[in-house]
Each structure stands twice: as C-alpha cells, then as structure tokens.
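Journal club prep, shared notes

We agreed each person brings one worked example of a sequence with its structure written out as tokens. Mine is Cobalt-precorrin-6A reductase. I'm keeping it raw so we can talk through how to read the token line rather than staring at a rendered picture. Sequence first:
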Amino acid sequence: MKRVLLLGGTGDALAIARRLTKPHVYSIAGLARVPADLACEVRVGGFGGVAGLINYLHANDIALVVDATHPYAARMSRHAREACTAAGIPLWAVRRPAWQSQPGDDWREAANWRGIVEEIAAFHRPLFTLGREPLAHLDEIPASQHWTIRCLDPHEGNARADIIDARGPFDIGGERALIDAARIDVIVSKNSGGKATEAKLAVARERGLPVVMLVRPSLPAAEREFDEPASALDALLAFDTNTQ
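Then the structure, token by token:
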C-alpha cells in the first residue's frame, strides 16, 4: 500500500488523522501536543528543510502529501510544494477560508509585528491571539499598555502582561467574560478562519472593539485544494482505495 503523509498540527488535520490507519503518517511539529488515540503512524519534529523532506518522501515510499498545516505556516507549505515537485509526488492542501468582515466590524490590517505595534499604539489593553510571537516582546511593552496574551502553552508573564494558556474552541460567553474582565480595548488576531476561535470576533462586534488582523501569507498552489477537512477526507479515502 502506498503511504500518505499528512502535514498537520491543526484541528482540521487532526480530524483527518483520526480516520487514517497505518501505514499512513501524521506529521506534527515538536511544539504540538502528540495525540494518543490515533491508529496511523505519528511523526514528531521537522524534516531538515526541503532536502530532508525529499529524502523522507523517497525513503518512506510516500505517494501523496496532504498539507493541512495552519494558514500561517507558510514556510512549511512552501517546503512541501518544493519537495513534492522535486520528488514527483502530488500535493493536496486543506486551505481553511479566511474570516470575512461583517457589518459593524472595525478591522485594521497589519502585515507584520511592526505593523501590529503601530496599529495598537493608541490602545491600552490589547488581547493578543497570535500564538507565541508576543512572548518574544514582553520587554517591549509600552508604559501605557497592559497586554493579555492567549497562547497554547504556559509561559511566565510579567507585571505588564498576563499569559493565558488555553486551547479552543472558545464560545461567546467565555470570550465575553475574558474581554470584560481584562478590560480589553483592542483584539489582535491572525485571520485563521474556522469556527473554533471565531467567537472573539462576534464579541468585538458587540462591544464595538477594533480588531487588528495579521494579513495571511500567500501559499503555493496544490494539485487539489479543499476548504474543509470532510471533503479532503473523502478524496483521501478514495485515493487510499485506489492505491492498495
């Protein structure tokens, strides 16, 4: 049987991985939690760049790569495209649609960290939902600001920052409670798409809070692209049947 390599670390990828069996491989970065209930092989860690990924594809008889990484994991997506092209292996991708602004939203786009800092300069109590990046800037917090940072893993804060380790999905009630308790006046977010972390945007709309949205990176094209995991899984199961 030809093997499928699923590049994951997202809820969408995990939904697919739960339906896979050996010898297929679910690959996650070392920073992600390792699921304990999967029937497929689980691989943890990087590949060593494009060259390392090419070697892995050949050495493990991989017939298809499915890129279901985070929409902001552009480097991994580029490496997957380059490696699959060099190895002559098809690449599929699960590309979650971005959130779209709605009436009542006040969204401001930022291209990078510097742009985010500029956009929030006039605010005092930002809520960061960017993952780990704000943790590298805890010693740069302006005297006029107090940050609330939500990320997946525990991390020590300081007198000017509260760190919340939490994993979605988040509901509207919980997001209201957090935003009100922390007196948030601006939300900083990746445009991740999906339902799991969308509630904060609804609360921002209710409260009239601005949202600084980090612009999505451009991603390489794939032979097939899916906007949700169920359709990707159907195609993947058909591929599995046809290659046995």
